[in-house]
Write a structure and sequence with these properties.
There is one protein chain. With 357 residues, the protein is α+β, with helices and mostly antiparallel strands. Helix content is 40%, strand content 17%. The chain is built from seven helices and eleven strands. The chain has a six-stranded antiparallel β-sheet, with no helix packed on it. The radius of gyration is 40 Å and the shape is elongated. The two termini are 70 Å apart.
Length: 357
């Protein structure tokens, strides 16, 4: 049985090692993809900036003789952005700067860029890319792919959409009432803290409060729209779901003992709980292996060694062999005194030599 337990422990260790190696490979692959995405976006932005500089220089030098660029295939799409540039690359945790805890539904203000000072609601937040999309702000023109233009719902070659904004460029806006004048106006929240964070185990959600430090004003979380349930013909009736069909009791197990065979193969190397007959079988095999090992050891002994081992077993069975004497408390105390005395003598020798010198 010990071999079975050792095999199970070894299999679990190997499985954990393989999982760690697999996770490391996936992490390396993700970082490689992130770097490639970052490099691709950087190349696209650099190419657009370079072309814009060349066009500006040609317009300045040639004047009315400058070439017309919004013709041909790029007649309608000249100057638009690629849809991939509407969002940034995935960032690492160490690359994310400090930003306010903003969620979808909050009202925010942009503190930098062409839409600086404008307020709008947050549509969605991307934590991986550390950015958010604000409704109606930071609009850009993008080119619509040809396959979208050829469908049943034909779309124009150019459309406008909101580009993502980095979270450090946004600040929360909250309505506060002035205690002196009684007027309520929007205030830009410079700093906000999250307090009393706890986990609701019944609903399975995290709860917390956002507070403006100093004023101790609680900024409520935006209300989420409740999705209306959609009923289908194949759904189970609510009365059947809520009907009580099993009553727990201490006289029987909540699940039959055979359920483990369904969860884990009976002879799996990862299984740590076995049937009684299997344990008895493996225990008998261990005893047989022990006897076989003892037989092989005796086979390698000389006749004199075999005779001595036989007499030792007979004396042990008859009770003639005495166990090793155990030290009493008085003996231990005496040994401790002698050890302390010897240690003191050893420590005093250098002092005596120094005095004599």
């Amino acid at each position: 049985m010990q071999k079975v337990l050792q095999r199970t422990a070894r299999a679990k260790t190997q499985a954990a090692r393989r999982a760690a190696i697999r996770w490391e490979k996936e992490r390396s692959t993700r970082r490689t993809l992130q770097r490639s995405e970052h490099d691709e976006l950087w190349k696209m932005a650099s190419r657009d900036i370079k072309n814009a500089r060349i066009a500006r220089r040609e317009d300045r030098e040639l004047g009315p003789l400058a070439p017309k660029r919004d013709v041909g295939d790029s007649k309608e799409t000249y100057g638009v952005l690629d849809s991939r540039r509407t969002r940034g690359p995935i960032k690492r945790e160490e690359d994310k700067k400090d930003a306010q805890l903003i969620v979808a539904g909050d009202r925010v203000v942009i503190i930098e860029g062409r839409d600086k000072g404008r307020i709008g609601p947050v549509v969605r937040v991307d934590r991986k890319r550390h950015e958010a999309v604000v409704k109606g702000l930071n609009l850009v023109d993008i080119a619509v792919p040809e396959w979208m233009q050829q469908g049943e719902q034909k779309q124009p070659p150019v459309t406008s959409m909101e580009a993502a904004i980095p979270l450090p460029s946004l600040r929360l806006v909250h309505a506060l009432t002035d205690p002196d004048t009684g007027k309520t106006r929007d205030v830009i929240v410079k700093k906000i803290e999250v307090r009393d964070a706890w986990f609701d185990r019944h609903l399975g959600i995290h709860r917390s409060f956002r507070v403006i430090p100093g004023l101790e004003v609680v900024v409520p979380w935006p209300k989420r729209e409740r999705k209306e349930p959609v009923e289908n013909d194949c759904d189970t009736l609510r009365m059947e779901v809520e009907s009580k069909t099993w009553v727990p009791t201490l006289l029987r197990r909540p699940m039959p003992s055979s359920v483990i065979d369904e969860l884990r193969n009976k002879y799996s190397k990862f299984r740590s709980r076995h049937d009684e007959w299997f344990i008895a079988k493996k225990t008998a095999e261990d005893e047989q292996a022990k006897r076989e090992k003892l037989r092989l050891n005796e086979a390698g002994m000389t006749p004199v060694q075999q005779l001595r081992e036989l007499r030792r077993r007979e004396r042990k069975a008859a009770g003639e062999l005495q166990e090793r004497p155990k030290l009493s408390e008085d003996m231990l105390i005496r040994i401790g005194e002698i050890m302390a005395k010897n240690k003191g003598l050893m420590g005093s020798k250098p002092k005596e030599e120094a005095v004599s010198a």
